[in-house]
Amino acid sequence: MKLRRSLVWTAAAVALGAVFMAYLRPDLVVTLANQIWNCF
Amino acid sequence: MSTATASAPAYRLSMTQVLLCGAAIVALSMGIRHGFGLWLAPITMDRGWSRETFAFALAVQNLAWGVAGPVAGALADRFGAFRVLIAGSVLYAMGLVLMALATSGLAFTGSAGILLGLAQSGTTYAVVYGVIGRNVAPDKRSWAMGVAAAAGSFGQFLMVPVENWLISDFGWQQALFMLGCLSLAIIPLAIGLKEPVLAAVTGVQQSIGHALREAFAYPSFRWLMAGYFVCGFQVVFIGVHMPSYLKDHGLSPSVATTSLALIGLFNVIGTYAAGSLGQRLQKRHILSSIYLLRSAAIVVFLSVPLTPWSVYIFSAVMGVLWLSTVPPTNAVVAQIFGVQYLSMLGGFVFLSHQVGSFLGVWLGGKLYDSTGSYDVVWWIAVALGVFAALANMPVKESAILRPAQAVARA
Predict the structure, then answer these.
(1) Is the Cβ–Cβ distance between B263 and B322 less than 8 Å?
(2) Which of B11, B159, B216, B284 could cross-link B31 (Cys pair, CB 3.0–4.6 Å)?
(3) Phi and psi, residue B2, nearest 5°
């Protein structure tokens, strides 16, 4: 039970970290920045 | 009032099944819609439309989502969430395909605005929370709602980079077709939320009219709606106007991008934490604390010098508080009124949220135009946060005493 819980939390942390890293990719930064700036 | 106490629940879906299917549905539904802003540039350039055409359709989508929410919720409560989810999934796919094919502003508003707004009302929190409420025991309900809300937050966080990748690799139109196919994945997931005998699991039977009169006459329900209105105002004002605020103060675009990523990341953590805390603490205290902390965070943010790090810290704090109001608010509604009309009542509370969202965006722009800065709106957001904190304090979390029960206790 403890092991399963630890695995779930680890998987969640890895998924969150991976998505966060995706936001730091230059192409997404440029796209989002353009979208954000274009809107105003 | 017609009351008839039903026997103990005859059928219950397993909690794991409800959570897996419900969380996946909310993640898909909330995630797909969250990246629509990425289509602004390609669609307006390709079709030769103004930004206003695009923005108007998305504004209509938000209003349609809010207005249709109580109706979708009532249908889900009456005929089963399964049917509403399937209808919502089909509408979602149709809306996305027609959004890709629309060649006039009117057709775009009809698809991206009305169809997708209706689809979201049938596939998001209110409908799924009804199933969670009816199939998860009260001692785990708030936590389960937190899991579903966290999944929705994760969907939002995940789908922005995914949709950006789809647009850049396949083109904006193909990307919409692909998302249309993806939205149909809600159908098999909805099967996991099919409740065998709906009436048997709801306890005291009420008519829709009575449930509505009862809720709107009950002060705690009105306080919850008032709080959720403030939630919508603050979150959408910050989400929409924050980049412009940062730009006005000379910060680089990458700061705004990182800010969005941090809000998304901490939002997942905050929604889950709020749901879990709801099992241990009084939910009105959690809600009051969230609103008060939001006001405090804004005051500190406005008081310190604006630097990238002040933005990052503010974004992380606001991220934790972002959708964390969702699980406790809906759990309190279930606690007070029971679960028979949970989706419909959740839909009404969400309508209040959407009205607040509309005002947050609109007032943000209007007051910026008339005063030349966001200062006034920031302080309105602070004042509203304090108001919402106070408004949630008198909320009575115990189950409402209905006439038949009152007589029985006398």
Answers:
(1) yes
(2) B159
(3) -95, 115
∠ CA B192-B196-B201, nearest 5°, is 110
Helices (H) and strands (E) in chain B, counts: 19, 0
- Beta-carbon separation of A32 and B164 below 8 A: yes
Residue of A nearest to B245 (CA): A40
Three-state secondary structure call for residue B62: helix
* Residue B275 or B205, more confident: B275
pLDDT number for residue B352: 96
User: How far is residue B75's CA from residue B235's CA, in Å, rounded to a whole number?
Assistant: 28
Q: What is the pLDDT of residues B30-79, one digit of tens each?
A: 999 988 888 888 898 999 988 788 888 988 998 999 999 999 999 999 99
Kindly determine whether residue B168 and residue A31, on different chains, have CB atoms separated by under 8 Å.
Answer: yes
- Rounded CA separation B171/A5 (Å): 40
B254 touching A (Cβ < 8 Å): yes
Provide ipTM, 2 decimals.
0.84
On whether the CB atoms of residues B33 and B39 are closer than 8 A, the answer is no
- Give the burial class of B254: count Cβ atoms within 10 A of its Cβ; 0-12 exposed, 13-18 middle, 19 or more buried: middle
Q: Give the distance, in angstroms, between the CA of residue B94 and the centroid of all CA atoms in the same chain.
A: 22
Residue pointed to by tokens 């690799």: B169
Distance from CA of B244 to the nearest CA of A (A): 6
Q: What is the pLDDT of residue B5?
A: 40
pLDDT in tens, B209-248: 999 999 999 999 999 999 999 999 999 899 888 888 888 8
All residues of chain B having their beta carbon less than 8 Å from the beta carbon of residue A15 are: 154
Q: How many CB atoms lie within 10 A of CB B367?
A: 17
Mean pLDDT for the stretch of residues A3-28: 89
Give the C-alpha separation, A1 to B188, whole Å.
Answer: 29
Q: How far is B314 from chain A (nearest CA, A)?
A: 17
pLDDT per residue over B75-117, tens digit each? 999 999 999 999 999 999 999 999 999 999 999 999 999 999 9
Residue A5 C-alpha, separation from nearest chain B C-alpha, in angstroms: 14
